[in-house]
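Reviewer 2 asked us to include a model.

Predict the structure of this chain.
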Amino acid sequence: MVKPGKYFESGAWAASMGALAAGANFFAYYPIEPATDIAEQMIRNGPKQGMVVFEAEDEISALGSAIGASWAGAKAFTSTSGPGFSLMQEHISYAAMTETPVVLINGMREGPSTGQATKAAQQDVMQTKWGGHGDYEVITYLPYSAQEMFDLTVKAFNQAERWRVPVMVMADKVTVLLMEEVVIPEKVEVVNRKKPKVPPEQFKPFEPEEDLVPPMPEFGTGYRVHVTGVTHDERGIPVSEDPWAHHKLVKRLCDKIRKNRDKIVEYELYGDEDPEILIFAYGFPARAAKVAVDIARRAGKRAALFRPKTAFPFPDKELKEVTRKAQKVIVVEWNYGQLLHEVLKVVPEEKVSFVYRIGEIPIPPEQILEEGGVKI
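Predicted model (structure tokens):
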């Protein structure tokens, strides 16, 4: 870990430093741009801090090994991009079912399929929540600066450990590769998973406490745990013939996030608190959206940017309150509409304009306003 202070570095470097600051000690990857920049940083810096760095034969194995390392007591993570993220979906739902704390950092690029392989986009956002089968909840962060690549990576590890869920840091390619000031603080809050408080013979590995999260033992410490993606009881024993056991288990897996969403949700409101014009944007396009807000305010309009830092849980209650008096809501995305659908759940459709680009085409501030129907 580097010394506290100011650095001029990339988002990939910042994410790597964030992982080390959070106590990560296992990293698995398969090379894929732009996430390979993160892997290069971990290869260079991880082993110096005692981290195990493992190049897997594919993305499926990378996440699978991270899940296994987590059960062995490691703070584990992987990094990837669109096609690799698609391959990881079955393991993401497995991690949710087995309540395995693990972090995934995604450098988003274009799709579908290989697309224009190394071009920036925001194509994988909805896949974080809906990519796997079944009902489950995850936590998804949306950094828009190199600084947030550090800050939100630290939070990703803390939330994964706190709630025992997969947590994803979804950064578009530009945010991964951009170079800007990154401040490494003197102290970083580090959260570690709860450990069993009773001896092995009394322990039920999936028996939740009041927060709906069970303590987590690690292999090799005397606790016997059956880790399975099959529906299981509080002992970890498969009970695939009992429908109510499945109902109870999956409801708890979802509720431990849903009922604690106020402790997880984060967003930034930039500009006027009671805007007549609200721009909704995240990731790198939010930078142009901030300038668009400044242009509108200089023209005498009440304007603001609502920038979600968490895509999931989605800040729906907060967005609904901010847009209550707004006359126009402009949703800006580097895709053909992913979080747009979440916005439309809480904002009347007649208020919403959608400004988008499919692929690596910049969206200048003036065009956000013009295409959003705002005359300056």
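Residues 120 and 376 are 29 Å apart (CA to CA). The mean pLDDT is 97. We have added this to the supplementary material.
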